[in-house]
Amino acid sequence: MSELFDAVDALVASRSPLPPPAERRRLRQGHGLTLDEVAAALRVRRATVSGWEAGRTEPRPPERDAYARMLKQLAELYPANVPVPTEDTAVPQTAAVAAAPTPSAVEPAQARTAPTDSAAEPVKTVRRPPAPASAAVSRRPPAQVARTGAPVGGADPRFENGPLAVVDAAEGEVLAYCVGGLVLDVPAKTIAALVDWTLREARLGQPKLSGPGKDADPLLVLTEAALERYGLPVTLTKEERLAGRLAQGHKVIKQLTRAHWQLTKRGFGPWARIYRPAQGTERACVQLCIPSWDALDARHWADAGQLPPADLARLLGTYASRVMTPRGSTAVTGLELMTALHPPTRASQPDAEGKRRSEHNPGSLGREPVDCAPCEAPDGHPLLADLPRFHRRTPAEVLMEEAYDWARPLTDTECLHPHLVGIDVNMAFAAGANGLTVGLGAPTHVTNPVFDAKLPGSWLVDLSHVDLSRVKVAKDTWAHLDASLLPSPFTPRGERPTGPAWYATPTVAYAVELGYDVCPLEAYVRHDHGRYLDGWYQRLRDAYLATMAGLGVEPDLSPREFLAAMDGYRHRDPELAIVVSAIKATVKGGIGKLRERPRGEDWRPGQPWRALARPTWRPDIRAAVISRTRVNMHRKIVKHAAFTGRYPVAVLSDCAVYASEGPSPLDFLPYRDGKPLPGGFKLGINPGLVKHEGTQSVLWGEGVREQFNAPDLNLARYIKDGTVTDADSGE
Q: Strand locations in 573-654, DSSP E?
C-alpha cells in the first residue's frame, strides 16, 4: 500500500501548480535571489532555472514540488498587487562578488530590468543616497557582476555599464542590452544621435589594458530591427558585400557627415568606426558591429548573430571582459590585442619645463613599419619587384615556415590495429608564442654567421645532414628511430631537406637540440628583440581556461576525468562554447594577420598594399611562432616514438593521428601511475597539452584513401567526425 501512496504523491507533485514564467521571475527578484542561489538550492543548473523563468521548459519531479513550494512562500511575501523592492535589497557578499561602482542619484541613461533573465548574472545590490525630491531619478537594476567576478565595467565609473551594448528596436522603442542583464532606453532617432548618446550618456567602454595604452571605444551591436529603425539595410547588396561597405552616397553616411562625424578608410561596413578627431587626450569614437552584414563570421562565432539581444550581449561581453572589446574579426582583434598590451608610445619624463612628450615605448613594435628581409617577403612584395613575373622561388630564396600537413601509408602492423585516434594540441600557436623571443626592429644582414639560438631571425643553412634515425632525446641520451615513419621537422610537408634553405631561429635551434652541428651561410638577424607576445599569450590563455572552467573543464583534472569532462562540453552552455571558439580563432587569426596579404585594393604584384603600412605587419614574427609550434609538435612525437615505438600516421597543424588498440588516447599514451611521459603528449586543458580530437576505424582510413585513390590522404583532417567531402588538396 505504501508504494501506492508514493505513486500518488509523485503524481500530485508532478502537477504542482506554478505561477506563469514572468511571475516566477518577479518573485525571485523581489526577494533579491539570484539564479545561482535558486539553482544551488534545487540542485539544478543555473540555465535550468533560467529556462523555467523564460517559459522555455517546465520543472519536473522532484524539483518541481520544491520549486512550487518556494514560489508559494515568496508569493505570500510579495503578493501580485504589491510592488516588489528593487533597491536597497541586501545580498550577502562573497569573495567572488564585489560591489559595482555606485552611480550618481541622477543618471543620464534610463535603465530597466531585462525582459529575460537568460543573460542575467549574479547580482549584488548596493545602497545609494536618496535623490532630491525634485530630481527625475531613473531606475536601474541592482549592480550587476560579470561571470569573472568583477563588477561590470570594472572599477571605472566611466564604463559602469560595460564594454558594449546590443541595440534593438521593438514596439516603438529602442533598447540597449548591456552586459549583466542591464537594459537602457535609447532616445536617439538617428545613427548620428546614437553615436552622440553613446559617448555622452551610455557609460560604455573598457579601461586600457596597459599603462601607456588607450581605453577601448564603446561597441554597439545593431540588430536587424535596429538597422531598419535607423534607415540602414538589413543586408548588403552584392556590390556592397564585394566593396565591404555602403555606397558613399547613402543617406545615413550623409547624416553623419552633416553632424561632423567621420568614418575610417574602411567606410560604413560590418565593423564601422565612427569618430571625430581627438581633442587633446579625449577620444570620440564608437565601434559598430552589424551581424546581419556578416560581422560575426559563422566559422568562429557560430550562430551568435541570431541570438536574442540579451544573450548576444552576454556572449560578446564575456569575450570582451576576458580578451578585449572586439575591434573587427577575431583576426583583427588578435592583432589589436598585441598593440593594446604593447602600445607603440608612452609619455616621457617631464623636461625642465615640466612638459611630457610622446616617446617610443620599449618592448613595442613602435609607430613606424620596418622592412622585412627579402627571404621573409611573400610573393608580390615590393622587395621582389625585380624578379621575373613567373619566377618560382626555391627554399634557398624564401622562408617557408608553415604548419604541418604530412601523412604516410599505414604499416602492416598498424593495419592490424582496430582504431585510429586523433589527439589535438590545445591553443598550439598560443603555446608556441609563450616565452618566444622575437625581433622588434629591422633585420641586419650577416654573412657566414655563427648560429645563436637566442638571436631571432632567418638563417640560410643546410639541414639535410640531420638524420632522424639517430637523435638526442635528452642531454646525453641518443635514440634510434625509424626515420621513414617520421615527418621531418624542417619542412611543412615533412620531406627531408635536400640543400640550403631559409629557417627561423627555433627550427635551426631544434636541429642543434637533436644533436647536429649547423653552419649558416648567411642570416638576417634582429639585435633589438624581446618577448613581445608573452602578455598576449597570458591573456588569451587565461581567457581560454576561465571559459573552459565555466563549461566544467578544469586544469587539475586527472586524465580520465579530463576526457569525461571534454565529452559534450559544448552542450553544457552553447553560448559559452562559442566564446571558446572565438578565443581560439583570435589566436590563429592574430598570428596570421602578421603577414596579411593584399585584399582586393586593385593591387598588382610589386606594389605595396595597405597592410604593409602597419608596424604589426611582421612576417618574421609569424614565421617564428609557426616554427616553434611545429618544433614543439615534433619534439613530442620523437619522445613518444623513442619511449613507445609508436609513430604518427598523419599530422595536420596541431593534430596527430596514431593507430591504436583502443578508441581512447589513454590506449596509446604512456601514462604510468597517472603521470605522463616527460616531454611527450599529456592530456589536459592547458595550452600545449592535448585533448581527444576523434576516433575512427582503421578500415575507415584505408577505405577513404582507396576511395580517393590517395595513399597519403591526410586522415588528421577528417578524424574528428569521419566526414570526407573531397580529396585532400593540401590547402
A: 650-652
